[in-house]
Design brief:
The structure holds two protein chains of two kinds.
Chain A: H1 21-49, H2 54-61, H3 75-80, H4 89-120, H5 126-136, H6 145-154, H7 162-165, H8 172-183, H9 187-195, H10 200-211, H11 213-229, H12 232-237, H13 246-252, H14 261-281, H15 283-292
Helix pairs in contact in A: 1-14, 4-8, 4-11, 5-8, 8-11, 11-15, 13-14
Chain B: H1 2-6, H2 13-51, H3 71-78, H4 80-111, H5 118-126, H6 133-143, H7 150-158, H8 175-200, H9 204-212, H10 217-228, H11 230-245, H12 249-254, H13 266-276, H14 280-307
Helix pairs in contact in B: 3-14, 4-8, 4-11, 8-11, 11-14, 13-14
The chains are: A mainly alpha, B mainly alpha.
């Protein structure tokens, strides 16, 4: 996958040479303007969340004041940064983070172990298991949730963290991505370790895992985004505050009679911050991981 | 590997013990994933076929669950609202494909060149793709405000007041189009990245050769770029189509299928049948139908890709 990292693109149809420098500058400025237009809704969200008057927010929306705040205030954030009560958005945010971290960490371990055995193990039914994993990949989440909700409520798991984590830890896609990554590593690596008397688990842990940083990054990013953005499933299995994730909590703003845009916007910005931090920290990996998920053709 | 397996009997004892130890280690390593997939994916998947043939309600009742054969499917296929929802997602797909893939393709072409601050630019274009759909709904819910929201102001300004304010989410003629707009904006970044990777996969020598032959930029685009991107196009179209058929979150948050069922989708229809009307068997029948649709699209993709021998 590392060869897909988009760092050095070839020029497409751009004339080279110094005589065209002026054109290049104009072109770059144009692309920047298009980019700014594309992300202007996000900028507007940030600005609006810093205004404390909800009528003002709506009134400003139609003009350039949507992109300017004269007296920024954090009052909207203060209103929702609670851990109990009606607007316990601090709690929802923490809930989502807990669900994300547990899902990703356990998912990395479980899927990579399975991928490793499928790539280098000696189990008899290996080929069949691999074919099964590929076949299972086609099943969309939406077409299993009906019976799954009933299974979970019979098991008494409604309104827990477990119900939001367990079903999505093991995934055909991630098992396959790990399998694919491990399988492309040289065979000599495995044989040498085996000669030295290392056990299968030891080889996995001490040799393959340290080498699989790109695969680990890809899967954590994809799993993290997936978990963070879950909406349909948590609305079906959470009824109380206890384990409610922030996505569901923000959506409930829309169900109320009066729409609290100001609070909804502050909560939305809160929801974006963790992803944004991750994105800025691992930008290179983000891009390659999305391409990595595209191998499934 | 097979060599060891077959000659295990001939090996001295320590080697055999090691083989057995390795067998159990491998089983232990693959077991968690197999177990979780069996419980949380295969079981509900098989159950959905069974449930679809029963009259099972969501909450258990004293009356026993009856096997009803294909009655649920028959009912689904005779419900006009189901056909409306299927028609709506088809409409959505037909609109979102050109809009979303078009934006993705154009931005990829723009970004596929040496630019100053390249990573910053890419990051900006990619930002909507990592924004949660719920947040996107909050943003576009405000943009769509009627009658004086930002979008209406822009339309009014550009048309010089000729076009009356549009009730984006409240007008049955516009609601689905509005959902298309926000969906395309949220998701184009993903396809853009795939196009960028596709563009990079085209060997630079092909462009050089075309240049030597005196091909213009436009001709190079038609005869080098486009054929080189064929598998990418197929892939992008198929994943976008599959995603489009699963349309749910935007509709559930912003329109609840309305106005006048103009944004009712298959998944929303299924969730409503299962959880508002509590007809689990009926909803399972819809989920089976959804699976068949997704499967057909995936098979079509495989066939198309094979035709372009990739």
């Amino acid at each position: 996958m590392s060869d897909l990292v988009l760092s050095q693109p070839a020029p497409l149809a751009i004339p080279r040479g110094n005589s065209k420098t002026g054109l290049r500058i104009v072109q770059t400025v144009c692309i920047f303007i298009i980019a700014l237009v594309m992300i202007s809704p996000l900028f507007m969200l940030l600005i609006a969340s810093l205004k404390d008057d909800r009528f003002r927010i709506l009134a400003d929306m139609g003009s350039f004041r949507a992109f300017w705040v004269s007296e920024p205030t954090l009052s909207n954030y203060r209103e929702i940064a609670n851990f109990s009560g009606e607007l316990a958005y601090g709690r929802y945010l923490v809930n989502s983070l807990v669900i994300l971290v547990v899902t990703v960490v356990s998912g990395l371990i479980i899927n990579s172990m399975a991928g490793f055995v499928l790539a280098w193990g000696t189990l008899r039914g290996k080929a069949i298991l691999l074919a099964l994993v590929v076949a299972l990949y086609v099943i969309p989440q939406e077409s299993i949730i009906m019976p799954l909700v009933v299974m979970m409520s019979r098991a008494g798991l409604t309104d827990t963290f477990a119900v939001q984590i367990l079903p999505w830890v093991a995934s055909p896609l991630y098992v396959f991505l790990f399998y694919q990554f491990f399988a492309q590593l040289p065979k000599e690596l495995y044989e040498a370790a085996e000669m030295d008397g290392a056990s299968a688990f030891r080889i996995y842990r001490s040799i393959y895992m340290p080498l699989s940083l790109p695969a680990l990054a890809t899967v954590s990013i994809l799993m993290g985004i997936e978990s963070w953005n879950q909406y349909l499933w948590p609305t079906l299995v959470t009824q109380t505050d206890y384990a409610r994730p922030i996505s569901v909590a923000i959506a409930t703003f829309f169900g109320q009679d009066s729409i609290y845009w100001d609070r909804a916007m502050a909560a939305s910005v809160l929801m974006m911050i963790p992803v944004l931090i991750l994105y800025l920290a691992f930008q290179r990996w983000f891009v390659s991981s999305f391409v990595g998920s595209a191998v499934k053709g | 590997m097979t060599l060891q397996e077959t000659s295990a009997a001939a090996l001295p004892r320590p080697a055999r013990r090691r083989d057995r130890q390795r067998f159990w280690q491998e089983v232990a390593m693959i077991a968690p994933a197999v177990l979780l997939l069996a419980v949380f994916l295969i079981t509900p998947f098989l159950l959905s076929f069974w449930t679809a043939m029963t009259n099972q309600p969501l909450v258990p009742r004293p009356t026993p669950v009856r096997f009803v054969g294909f009655l649920n499917f028959q009912r689904v296929f005779t419900d006009p609202l189901f056909w409306t929802s299927l028609w709506n997602v088809t409409r959505f797909t037909v609109w979102v494909l050109p809009v979303q893939c078009g934006i993705a393709f154009l931005t990829a072409l723009l970004l596929h060149q040496k630019l100053p601050m390249q990573n910053v630019l890419r990051g900006m274009f990619f930002l909507p793709a990592i924004t949660s759909m719920v947040v996107v709904c909050v943003i576009w819910g405000t943009l769509f405000q009627y009658p004086s929201g930002p979008l209406n102001q822009i339309v009014g300004f550009l048309s010089g007041g000729m076009i009356q304010p549009i009730d984006w989410l409240g007008d049955p003629n516009w609601a689905m189009f509005s959902i298309v707009l926000l969906s395309a904006w949220q998701a184009y970044g993903f396809q853009m990245i795939i196009y960028l990777a596709g563009l990079q996969g085209i060997p630079e020598e092909l462009y050089d050769a075309a240049r030597i032959d005196g091909a213009s930029a436009l001709r190079r685009f038609w005869h080098v770029t486009m054929p080189g991107l064929r598998p990418t196009h197929v892939f992008v179209l198929v994943i976008t189509t599959i995603q489009a058929f699963k349309l749910y979150t935007q509709v559930a948050i912003l329109t609840q299928g309305g106005p006048k069922e103009s944004t009712e989708t298959v998944v929303h229809y299924m969730v409503r049948a299962g959880f508002e009307e509590q007809k689990l068997g009926y909803a399972s029948a819809v989920s089976v139908i959804l699976f068949v649709i997704v499967l057909l699209i995936a098979l079509l993709q495989r066939k198309l890709l094979r035709r372009f021998d990739v």
